[in-house]
Amino acid sequence: MRYIAFIHKEPDSVYGVSFPDLPGCISAGDTIDEAVQHAVEALSGHVRILEADGDPVPPPRDFDAIMSDPDLEEDRQGAMTTIVPLVRDRGSTARINVSFDLGLLDAIDAAAKARKQTRSAFLASAARREIVE
């Protein structure tokens, strides 16, 4: 799932991110990239709290629905829009079977070792980064 987010920037402030479909879910960052990275974490945490409390998770609306919603007119003023993926951390892992070229696998293992990570941790962080970008 992907949610539309508004990015605002006031003079002498950081970039703020809000989600029209998830009131109260906000994030910020010194740069747009940092704000969006933090927004991924905020979105995941917000949804996790909603689910833990037994509250429904609103489905994401499409861009046209967000842009035509009269209740969001003020929020849209001066805002940039972006799409933020919902990356759920479920707290458990699953063993999977994947295939890589042996040369790529060697490069993965070397990069993981240099970062003091396991192969799985390295691949998970690389996948998360790719999904967010």
Automatic annotation (TrEMBL):
InterPro entries tied to this protein: HicB-like, TA_system_antitoxin, TTHA1013/TTHA0281-like
Residues of the HicB-like antitoxin of toxin-antitoxin system domain: 3-127
Entries under SUPFAM superfamilies matching the protein: TTHA1013/TTHA0281-like
Pfam families in UniProt: HicB_lk_antitox
The protein, known as: CopG family transcriptional regulator
